[in-house]
Amino acid sequence: MSAEQARDAFREAHGRDPEGVFSAPGRVNLVGEHTDHNEGHVLPFAIDRRTWVAAGRRDDELVTVRSDDPGTEPVSLVVGTLRSATGWAAYPLGTLWALQQEGVPDDEGWDLVVHGEVPLGAGLSSSAALESAVALAVDELTGADLGRPALARAGRRAENDVVGAPVGIMDQAASLLCREGSALLLDCRSMATEDVALGFEEAGLVVLVVDSRVRHDLADGGYADRRASCVAAAEALGVPALRDATPDAVEALADDTLRRRARHVVTEEARVHEVVRLVGSGRPVAVGPVLAASHASLRDDFAVSVPEVDVLVDAAVGAGAVGARIVGGGFGGSVLALVPAEAVDAVGRACRAAALGPEPTVREVAPAAGARRDL
Q1: CB burial class (10 A; 0-12, 13-18, 19+) of residue 223?
Q2: How many CB atoms within 10 Å of residue 359?
Q3: Among candidates 329, 369, 370, which has minimal Cα distance to 132?
Q4: Cα 204 to the chain's mean position, in Å?
Q5: Which of 15, 147, 299, 329 yields a CA-CA distance of 20 to 30 A from 123?
Q6: Is 8 a catalytic residue?
Q7: For the residues 297-325, what does the mean pLDDT come to?
Q8: Cβ distance 20 to 140 under 8 Å?
């Protein structure tokens, strides 16, 4: 129904049909947190929550964007000023600007209408879903045929250069490249990808995403500070990126903060490959302890967790989850829990009972397909 909702909203706003309706999913990263901006590997999968964009070209140079999300105001900018977009509109308009830098026509206007079902600020990458849906819409409707890796780069450039969030490319790549039923092993340096069948359903396991409802903003200082520490650590070690560092070299770093930040990246890179090995050998339940180690590293070495999230991780494991960890950029957001099907209700109850803040939202998610044209 949501594709039809986006189409109908476009009709109501503009008095005509859109040229097409496109959607892209949010994502959850099974393991590989903060390895993407260190040119390492990540293992995300797209989720069955999507953002739809109804799009149509105009006969002038005005670009309009509106959303049915409460609190968002319609925005209109002239084509040549898209990089000045601020607030929520910086994501779709920044993506259009980035695509224009890749050769998409920059002399025609657009009307974009957004309908989203990916929770905002929950660590599920609602921003990448929006960017990816816009990128696919513009690419297909203009016939640019840039290729999905290029569309992912455009979404990342929008976040880096327009929004001001120094994120890696994982979120956009997952939203555009994932296949139903699989995670995506992504080499963030080469952009090489491999579909990885997880086997969770066959093993009687369910992925729960527990939204702490503690909101975060990747354009604030915490994320940028962690990324700067990674760059500084790589420079101190004399390597192009922390992906290239060895554990022994990291432990020899004199600066305690840089050592802990680098230790997380190096050990998390190893955890990605361990999870791929475990699911490939038919042992998905053994992924649980790897998730636990990832959370401990993100909490203690990378210092991006918060008490409201830590209690949810502990509650989930105490109620039967085989493993759980914070997902997303950190400083709030959601917990991923890998849970036996028979323990799903108990884990949900335990997390709601343990919450330090607002009652968390518990969602069951499954690996879904990437961006697509719906209408």
Answers
A1: buried
A2: 11
A3: 370
A4: 26
A5: 147
A6: no
A7: 97
A8: yes
SS3 at position 345: helix
pTM: 0.89
CA–CA separation, 315 and 349 (whole Å): 9
For residues 201 and 365, what is the distance between their CA atoms, to the nearest angstrom?
11
Q: State the residue for tokens 């070299």.
A: 249
The kind and range of the H/E element at 352 are helix 344-354
Secondary structure letter of residue 360 according to DSSP:
P
- Is the per-residue pLDDT at 162 higher than 60? yes
Q: Read off the amino acid at residue 69.
A: D
Q: How far apart are CA 353 and CA 350, in angstroms?
A: 5
Placement of tokens 């880096």 in the chain: 160
Would you place residue 1 in the very low, low, confident or very high pLDDT band (cuts 50, 70, 90)?
low
Show the tokens assigned to 340: 């036996």
Q: Which of 1-10, 79-88, 113-122 has the lowest mean pLDDT?
A: 113-122
In the chain the domains, ranked by start, together with CATH numbers, are 2-195 (3.30.230.10), 197-365 (3.30.70.890)
Instruction: Single out the catalytic residue among 36, 111, 139, 171.
Output: 171
d(CA 228, CA 244): 17
